[in-house]
C-alpha cells in the first residue's frame, strides 16, 4: 500500500479522504495485485491514505524512505509499554515509532484527522505528535492496529535528563525502578525538586514555546483530550 | 458583529467553528451591547465568524476596511439578478459583492466551509469565489441571508470582451438583449465563433491555469457542484 501510493498522481486532500479505508487482501499464494508469501492469508488496511500522505509530505518524509524504513529492516521492540498496554517498536534507522492501538483509539484518531489537518496548516510549530500513518493488519481473525509516529527521542540527540510533565502533582514522581535506569524519565514532582530554578529560555523562545503550547492546548481541549505529557529533555 | 470580531484575540480556527452561528438582537431602543436605531427591532446572525475571519485574513482583507466598505457607505444595487433570483449589490468602493441567497444555499455554503478551508490551504491559486462572510438579518418575521464575496470585475480592470463559459454548447449564446449592452457578457457559442484561435497564453501560465482549473474541478466534484462558470475577460 505504501508503495502503490507513491506512484499515484498527486492531488489535493478532500474532506472525504479522512474517512477512506483502503483494504488489500494478501492471499498466501499471491494475486494479481500482491506477491506470494509464506505467512497465512492476511488483509492490510490503510486508513485515510491520501490524508496521511499529505501529512508525511508536510513533515518532509519521502515515500520511498518511509517504505524502506518500515519494511526493509526489522523493527526493534521497545520494553516500555506505557500505561495503555500498547506495544512500541522503533524502526532500525531510529526515525519512526510504531505503536499498537486499540480499535477505539484508531477510530478516535481517524475522527481527529480533519482538525489535525487544520492545526498543521495554522500552527506549524505545533508540539503535538507527528502522525505518519494508521494501519490495520487482519490475520487469523485478529486485528492489529498500528500507528506510525515520529521518534521524539532519536539517539543522535544526547539527553542529559528527561522529564515527562503533565502539570499535575498527584502521584507524579518517578518510581524507584524507573530511577535505576541509565536515563530515567522523571516526572513533575522530581522536576519541582531537582530543577528549582526551572529552565532558562531566551525571551523570544520562551514566548514562542508558550504560544505554541497554548494553541496546542486549545486544540486538545476542542478534541476533549486531557491525557497529554510535555516531554522535556 | 464585524466590529466586535476585530477586537477579539486571534486564535486558530477549530473544526467546530464552521458550525457556529453568532446571533445578536438589535432592539429599536438599544441594549447594553447594541446602539438604539430608528428601524424596527432586528436580529443579525453571523455564520462561522471565526472561520470567515480566517478566510478574510488569508485574502488580505483588514477587519476595519471590511467593516468600513460594507457599513459606512450606501451599497449600489446591480441590475443583473442572474438566473437564481438573487439580488446583487456592490460596495461603493468597488471591492465587495453582496448577494442575497436562499436558506438552502446558505446552509449548503456553510456545509462546504471545512472543504473550502482545505482547498485554500492547498491550492492558493484557486479560481473559486472568495467568500468573505455569510450573514442573516431577521426582521419583521423575514430572513434575509447575504453572502459577501470578492468583486471579480472591479472597474479598474478595463474589460475588452467578457465571456461566461460553462463548457457547454447547449443554449450558450448571449441573448440579443445582452448584446445591446456596452460590455455584453458573451457565452460559449459566441466564444467559439468570435475567438476561433482561442486565447494565447505563455507555456507556464497555460499549465498553471490548467492545473488550477483541474484542482478546482476536483473540489467542485467532491461537493457535487456542477453549476459553475469560468469568467474570461
Describe the protein in words.
- The structure is a homodimer of 233-residue chains.
- The first copy, chain A, is α+β, with helices and mostly antiparallel strands and 233 residues long.
- Chain A has two domains: 2-150, Phosphatidylinositol Phosphate Kinase II Beta, CATH 3.30.800; 162-232, 2-Layer Sandwich (Phosphatidylinositol Phosphate Kinase Iibeta, Chain: A, domain 2), CATH 3.30.810.10.
- Chain A has helices spanning 2-7, 49-58, 63-71, 103-122, 176-179, 188-194, 203-222; strands spanning 21-26, 42-47, 76-78, 88-90, 96-101, 131-139, 142-150, 162-165, 185-187, 230-232.
- The longest helix of chain A has 20 residues, at 103-122.
- The A-B interface holds A 11-16, 54, 114-115, 117-119, 121-123, 215, 218-219, 222 and B 11-16, 54, 114-115, 117-119, 121-123, 215, 218-219, 222.
- Chains A, B: Residues 1-233 form the PIPK domain.
What is this entry, summarized?
By secondary structure, the first copy, chain A, is of the alpha+beta class. Chain A has 7 helices and 10 strands.
Biggest interface goes to: A-B, 19 and 19 residues
Would you count the extended β strands of chain A for me?
Answer: 10
The profile of the biggest β sheet of chain A is: 7 strands, antiparallel
- Beta-strand residue fraction of chain A: 15-25%
CATH class of the largest domain in chain A: Alpha Beta
Give the termini distance of chain A in whole angstroms. Answer: 36 Å
Computed CA radius of gyration of chain A, to the nearest angstrom: 20 Å
Strand order of the largest sheet of chain A: 1-2-6-7-5-4-3
Could you say which overall geometry of chain A the principal axes of the C-alpha atoms support? globular
**What's the CATH H-level superfamily name of the largest domain in chain A?**
Phosphatidylinositol Phosphate Kinase II Beta
Domain PIPK (chains A, B): 1-233
Keywords (chains A, B): ATP-binding, Cytoplasm, Kinase, Nucleotide-binding, Transferase
InterPro entries (chains A, B): PInositol-4-P-4/5-kinase_C_sf (IPR027483), PInositol-4-P-4/5-kinase_core (IPR002498), PInositol-4-P-5-kinase_N (IPR027484), PInositol-4/5-P-5/4-kinase (IPR023610)
Protein name (chains A, B): Phosphatidylinositol-4-phosphate 5-kinase, type I, alpha, a
Amino acid at each position: 500500500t505504501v508503495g502503490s501510493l507513491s506512484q499515484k498522481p498527486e492531488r489535493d486532500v478532500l474532506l472525504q479522504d479522512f474517512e477512506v479505508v483502503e483494504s488489500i487482501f494478501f492471499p498466501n499464494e499471491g494475486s494479481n495485485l500482491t506477491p506470494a508469501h509464506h505467512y497465512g492469508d492476511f488483509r492490510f488496511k490503510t486508513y485515510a491514505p491520501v490524508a496521511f500522505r499529505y501529512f508525511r509530505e508536510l513533515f518532509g518524509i519521502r515515500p520511498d524512505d518511509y517504505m524502506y524504513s518500515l519494511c526493509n529492516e526489522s523493527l526493534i521492540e521497545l520494553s516500555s509499554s506505557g500505561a495503555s498496554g500498547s506495544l512500541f517498536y522503533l524502526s532500525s534507522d531510529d526515525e519512526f515509532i510504531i505503536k499498537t492501538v486499540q480499535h477505539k483509539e484508531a477510530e478516535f484518531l481517524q475522527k481527529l484527522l480533519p482538525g489535525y489537518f487544520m492545526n498543521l496548516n495554522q500552527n506549524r510549530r505545533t508540539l503535538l505528535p507527528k502522525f505518519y500513518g494508521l494501519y490495520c493488519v487482519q490475520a487469523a481473525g485478529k486485528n492489529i492496529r498500528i500507528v506510525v509516529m515520529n521518534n521524539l527521542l532519536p539517539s543522535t540527540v544526547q539527553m542529559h535528563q528527561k522529564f515527562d510533565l503533565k502539570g499535575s502533582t498527584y502521584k507524579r514522581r518517578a518510581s524507584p525502578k524507573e530511577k535505576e535506569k541509565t536515563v530515567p524519565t522523571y516526572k513533575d514532582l522530581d522536576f519541582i525538586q531537582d530543577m528549582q530554578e526551572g529552565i532558562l529560555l531566551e525571551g523570544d523562545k520562551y514566548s514562542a514555546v508558550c504560544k505554541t503550547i497554548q494553541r496546542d492546548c486549545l486544540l486538545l481541549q476542542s478534541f476533549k483530550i486531557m491525557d497529554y505529557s510535555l516531554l522535556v529533555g
